[in-house]
Amino acid sequence: MTTPRSYLFVPGNRPERFAKAFSSGADAVIIDLEDAVPPGERLAARTNAAAWVSPEHPVLIRVNGAGTEWFRDDIAICTAPGVAGVVLPKAERVEDIRSIGKPVLPIIETARGFWNVSALAHAPNVQRLIFGSIDFQLDLGINGEGEELLYFRSQLVLVSRIAGLPAPVDGITTVFDRPDAVRADTQRARRLGFGGKLCIHPKQVSTVNECFGPAPEEVTWARRVVEASAGAGGAAISLDGEMIDRPVLARALELLKQFREP
Fold first, then answer.
1. Half-sphere exposure (CA, 13 Å, Cβ side) for 255?
2. How many CA atoms lie within 13 A of 75 on its CB side?
3. Parallel, antiparallel, or unpaired: how do β-strands 6-11 and 196-199 relate?
4. For the chain, how long is the longest CA-to-CA vector?
5. 176 CB contacts (<8 Å, ≥6 apart)?
6. Which residues have C-beta within 8 Å of that of residue 156, sequence separation ≥ 6?
7. Over the stretch 34-78, which tens digit does the pLDDT of each residue have?
8. In the predicted model, is pLDDT for residue 261 greater than 70?
């Protein structure tokens, strides 16, 4: 199975949007029972999610946090066959992950969650780490999405690699009617080693998918490298003035692995 690039949230209290989200082109859809839903509508959101999920359109579900009154019943509906995994907000304790019994994507969005991130990444059933950058800023009193969070983003990439997990998922871009902002945020995430991004609107999906795939010129370069290397029998060679050895070939093969036909 291909690792998702885009994860699109859809509020659980808006069931009329579920099918649209599923057909948006997002690699994964998250029905949200937490932040996107007013507290008074969270029971209805859970009911909506339980009624819609099926193996024909598998989704992830963002449950309410482990310390909330809704957590236990949220987890109960996640046993349905159509639930591909659980997105756990404000993940801080391995015990909470153990209690879920499904693939889990912990959101690292608090100081304590970040402090415990290595243990969380190594917990059973953890599928991938997510960076909840907005709430993380709030918890630590940080003001800024750029260099202010560079250390924390880089640590999530490193921990994911050490734990043998796919590259982590970056947080949301709050604007959805400015493709340039979504593109800039996604390109930054990819440069830092992230492999996916949360989306809050279908308009963001195509930009995120494009940015996490190789550019056409990269695909052309990778194919030429592979062909040249094959002709050299694995020996180091020169192509367009660049030495092609094992690490360069590995990079080319990885780019081709990431390439998806439009």
1. 20
2. 18
3. parallel
4. 66
5. 182, 200, 201, 203, 204
6. 108, 117, 129, 131, 168, 194
7. 999 999 999 999 999 999 999 999 999 999 999 999 999 999 999
8. no
* Tokens describing residue 26: 């997002």
Secondary structure class of 105 (helix, strand, coil): strand
pLDDT at 236 over 80: no
**β-bridge mates for residue 6, sequence order:** 197
How far is C-alpha 28 from the geometric centre of its chain's CA atoms?
9
Report CA-CA distances (Å) from 129 to 14, 105, 169, 181, 247: 26, 6, 6, 23, 27
Q: Are 71 and 46 in contact (CB under 8 A)?
A: no
The number of residues making up the chain comes to 262
Q: Given 3-state DSSP classes, what are the helix, strand and coil percentages for the chain, each rounded to the nearest 5?
A: 45, 15, 35
Alpha helices in the chain (DSSP H): 18-22, 42-52, 71-77, 94-98, 111-115, 117-121, 133-140, 150-163, 179-192, 202-211, 216-231, 246-258
Q: How far apart are CA 70 and CA 45, in angstroms?
A: 11
